[in-house]
Amino acid sequence: MRARLAAIFLSLMGSLPAHADTPKLAVFDFELLDTSLQGEMSGPRKDEQDRLMRAGDQLRRELAESGKFQLIDIAPVTAAAHGSNLQACGGCDVRYADQIGADLVLTGVVQKVSNLILIMNIYMRDVHTGRVVAAMNADMRGNTDESWTRVTSYLVHDRLLAPNYGMPKPQ
To answer: Total structural domains in the chain?
Structure first.
């Protein structure tokens, strides 16, 4: 599966318009899917909302620093995106990204199973076709600033920016 996603990602990179040095990427804020008993009983927590924002900022910063993407300002569509469930809105993420001129769109969701078990998921889609070109996730053990920062960094550097991840090396 990883090899297939990497191949799709690489082919997408080659299929972008020739005049584009780097693909234009819209990175939306992370969403939280809280399926924990604590979330059901107490509702949203400020520290988790802050972590969602910091994870999104970290993701944008590290992707911009990589030089592999040209990040697009999402401000014109932020209110609409925040009013939608980007993982279940029937492609509204692609429509919003298209409105601001992006080639690719990246969304993410953190599922909270409990305060000890969380899963960060990142999805990248081609705005022109709507197809998923990369999907990845990592589990966190512990709901702390450090665990969120580390898993975000892992997904960026060891998965998203490493398109040959999981593929055999040429001999």
So the answer is: 1
